[in-house]
Structures are given as structure tokens and as C-alpha cells.
Amino acid sequence: MGFCEEESVVILGMSTKRNCAIQQLEIVMRPLFLIAVLVCSIATVFAQDGGTAQQAQTPAVVKPSTATPGVTKRQVRQRARIRQGVRTGELTPGEAAKLRGEQRKIKADKQAAKADGEVTPAERKQLQKEQNKSSRDIYRLKHNNVTR
Prior knowledge:
The protein is an all-alpha fold. The chain has five helices and two strands. The protein folds into two domains: 48 residues; 74 residues. The longest helix is centred in the first third of the chain and has 33 residues. It is rod-shaped.
């Protein structure tokens, strides 16, 4: 054999034939062991970052978004607050008309922001600012002790 010479000498209680077989096995198994360690290391990396190791290397393409679910939810809630105020008499017809006008302006501003195909962070901030003001106005007018 090419790996070691066959001798029948006994070294430390083992024959050289057995030592030669162990050496051959080690030579074959060493690369397999290294491959197994490499695979386990890669699997560990993917498990720790949720399998996004490849995503971190490739640049993400961010598509412009016109979705405004937060604005829409607030519009629905604010309209419900206005209706509730009218129903209970907390809002006069004039106050309700003013608040509905604010809601129409917010809706128009939202449509204008979506018109170019992207709602920018600045436009989102402006819509939120308008909705915050409208929310304060709803509260203030519902609690001003003027009833119909």
C-alpha cells in the first residue's frame, strides 16, 4: 500500500498493520470532518440571523409606497367620533360641519400625496400633523359644554 509500509513489528501493544489502517482512515475522514464542521457553522449563522445572511449581502430594492393604512384607520375612527358626538348632542350641527370639513381636507391631502405614486415621509408627517390637529379639535368641541 502507498500510505505506510507493512511491518509486523509490535509498537505499544499494537501491530503496525493496525496503525497503518488507522492512518488511512484518518486521511480519508479528515476532509469529511472539515466539511461537516463547515456545514454546521453555516447552519448556525443562518439560524442566528433568521436565514437572512444572503439578504444582508444583496442590496434591497425599496419600492415606493402609496399605502397609508394608519391614516385611513384614523380617518375612520375620527369620523366615528364625530358621528357619536352628533348623536349624543355633544356637537352642534355647525361644529360637526367644521370637523367634517377638516376630514375632507385630510382626505384630499392624502389623495394628492398618492397622486405621484409615492407618499414620502414628509407627506406622511404632514398628514399625521393634520390628523393630530383634527383629533384635538374633535375633543375640544365635544367637551366645550355647547350642546344642541
